[in-house]
Amino acid sequence: MLKKTATAFALGFSLALAMSSTALAEGTVKIGLIMPYSGPFADAGAQMQAGIDLYIKTHGDEVAGKKIVLIKKDTGGPNPDVAKRLAQELVVRDHVDVLAGFALTPEALGAAPVATEAKKLMVDMNAATSIITEKSPYIVRTSVTIPQINYAFGKWAAGQGIKHAYTLVADYGPGHDAEKSFARGFKEKGGEIVGADHSPVANPDFSAYVQRIKDAKPEAVYIFIPGGSQPAAIGKALADKGLTPPNTKLLGQGELTMPDAMKSLGKNADGIVTAFHYTLERKDPLNEKFVAGYEKLTKGREPDLFSIGGYDGMHLIYAALEKTKGDASGDALIKVAKGMSWESPRGPITIDPETRDIIQNVYIRKVEKVDGKLQNVIIDTIKDVKDPLHGAGK
Amino acid sequence: MAVVLFDGFAFGMLLFVLSVGLSVTFGLMNFINLAHCAFGMLGGYVAVVAMRAFGVPFLLALPFAFLAAGLVSVVLERSFFRRLYRAGGLNQVLFTIGMVFVAAASFAYFFGTGQQPIVLPDYLQGYWEVNGLRFGTYRIFLVAVSLVIAGLLVYGLEHTRFGARIRAAVDNQRVAQGLGLDVDTIFAITFALGAGLAGLGGALAIGIVGLDPSFGFHYLVYVLIVVAVGGLGSIGGSFVAAALLGIFDVAGKYFVPDMGAFLIYLFMVVLLLVRPLGLFGKR
Fold this sequence. Notes:
The complex is a heterodimer of chains A (394) and B (283).
Chain A: H1 2-25, E1 28-35, H2 42-59, E2 62-63, E3 66-74, H3 80-92, E4 98-101, H4 105-118, E5 121-124, E6 139-141, H5 146-159, E7 164-170, H6 173-188, E8 192-199, H7 207-216, E9 220-224, H8 230-240, E10 249-253, H9 259-265, E11 273-276, H10 285-297, H11 305-323, H12 330-337, E12 341-344, E13 347-351, E14 358-370, E15 373-385
Parallel strand pairs in A: 1-3, 1-4, 4-5, 5-6, 7-8, 7-9, 9-10, 10-11
Antiparallel strand pairs in A: 2-3, 11-14, 12-13, 13-14, 14-15
Chain B: H1 2-29, H2 36-54, H3 58-79, H4 89-111, E1 127-130, E2 133-136, H5 137-159, H6 161-171, H7 173-178, H8 183-209, H9 215-218, H10 220-230, H11 235-255, H12 260-274
Antiparallel strand pairs in B: 1-2
C-alpha cells in the first residue's frame, strides 16, 4: 500500500514537474545562481543574494517581454567540483540561459568550462582573481579584481611619500595576488617592502604576526585578509600592541573596514586607509537610494562588496537582454555586454570589450569620525582602473 | 620574546576556559560531546544580546553567558544527551555533531550570518607598557579571569564534598553508585558547569576572535586538541595543555610564520606518540 502511494506520488510529482517546466519555457529567461548559501562563506552568499533581490525588486522581474526566473544552487563553500556539477545540472536539467553568482574563485573556475561548452553567458558577480575572465569567452565580471585595486593602491601609497611598508596577507590565492600587486605598484614608485608574512586564512589570534611587524618597525603596514571575523581579530591585535595610526600607517583593501568589521574594531579603526571599489558612505544620489533600499530589504543590514557585485551583475543581464530584445543565447548576450557602460551606485563602470573585465574607479578612503561615528571617508579617487594583469602572460 | 610568551599564554587561557568543561565531562561520563563549543557560541550570543539589547555592561554580561549556557545545557542533557550515555561512541559523535549543525543554522536564522561585534569597555582596551614591552589589557584580563576559574575549579574539586563525589564518580562509577552517591545528579550538575564555562569562554572569545554562527565548528579542533593533550578528566592537564598549545601556536607563528599554523598539530602528534593518554591522563 505504502509502496503504491509512493509510486503514485512520485509519478504525479514528476508529471507536475514536467508540466511546470514546459509551461515556464515560454517567455522566460532563467538565471542559474551558483553561490555559497551555506558553510563558512554563507554571509557572502546572503549579501550577494540580497543585492540581486534588490535589483529585481526595484526594476521588476520582466525584461524585453521575458520573465526573469532565478534558480539557486548552493556550493557550500570554495568547491570547484560541486560548482561544476551544479553548472551542468543547471544547463542540462533546468535549461538555464545565464549562469551567475560565484562568490569565490574556485566556484567560478569550476563552472567556466561548462559556460564555454554550453555557450551560456556567465556573470561573475564577485570572485576576484584576475584569471577568471580568461577561462571562458562567455564570462563577464561585475565585481572587482584584486590586482586592480591593489596595484593602484601601491602606486598611490608610494606617491604619498611612504617609503617602507610591511605586508601581511592571508595565505591563499587572493592574498598572494594582493601582496604581489601591491608590492609591484609600491616598488614602481620607489617604495620598499621591508617584510612580508602570510597568516592562515582563518586565523584566530594575530598577536604573533603583529609582534613580528612591530619588531620590524615599518612606516606602514599593508594588510589583506578576508572579511568576516578576521578584520576585528587583527584590529584588536594591532591595538593591543599600539600599532595604530598615526604612529604606524595602516593600509588595506576595503574588507578591513567593512561596516561589520568597523563595528568590531571600534575606535581602533580610526585612521586606517583602505582602497576599494565600493564605498557605502559615498555621497551620490544613486548610492544613497541603493543603500536605503538595501537596508529596507534586509531589515537593517548595510550593503557591501558582495551586494554591489550582485546588483550590478543583474543590471548587466537586464541591460544586455534589452539590447538583444530578449534573445538570451550566450553569443548574443556576450556580444552586447562587451563595452557596455553604466552608472552604478559605486560610480561609473565599463565592461572592457577586450577582456570582458570591469573598468572602474578605485577609491582611497580613510576612516574618520563623521558626526561622532566612524566612517570610510573618500580622500582620493583613481579613475577608470583596469586590471593590470590581463594579457601580462602573453 | 616575553610578549610572545604572554600573548600565547593568554590565547591558551581562552582555550582553557572553552575546553575544561569538555575535558571533565568527557572524563567523567565517557560522553563525547562535540557540541561543547556550541554552548560556547550560545554564551557568546547571550552576551551580545545582553549588551546590545539591554545595555548590560560587559563584565555583567559574562555571568549571564555562563548561566544561560549552563541552563540550556541542563535542559538538553535531561532531554537528549542522557539517552546516549550508554550508546556507543559513534552514536554520541553523530548526534552531538548534528547538534552543532542545528545550532549553527539556528543562530544564522535568528542573528544572520554576519559577525556580531561588541564594543569592549575602554578600561579593557589598549595596552600596558612595562620596560618597553606592550601587554594587551584585554589579554591581562583574560589571564586573570582564567586563573581565578582554574583556582576555583581546583579548590572545588579537591577540597569540597561535591568535588570528592565527582572524583569518586570519575574513578569508579559503579562503586560510587553502590555507596549511595546519586551519580545521575552529579553528572547533570557537572555537565551544566562545563557547558556554563564554555558559554563564559564564548563570551570572552568575542574580544579576541569575534563571533559568528561557525564558532561551534571553528574552535572544536582547538578544544579537542586541548582535551586530547591534557588527558581526560584532568583540570590541571587541560590548563597545562591549553597554555602550551596557545604558546606553541603564537610562538610558532612568530618564529616560523610560514609553517606556524601547522606547528600545534605537530606538537599534538609528537606528544600523543610519547604519551598516548595525554599529559595527565589516567585511563
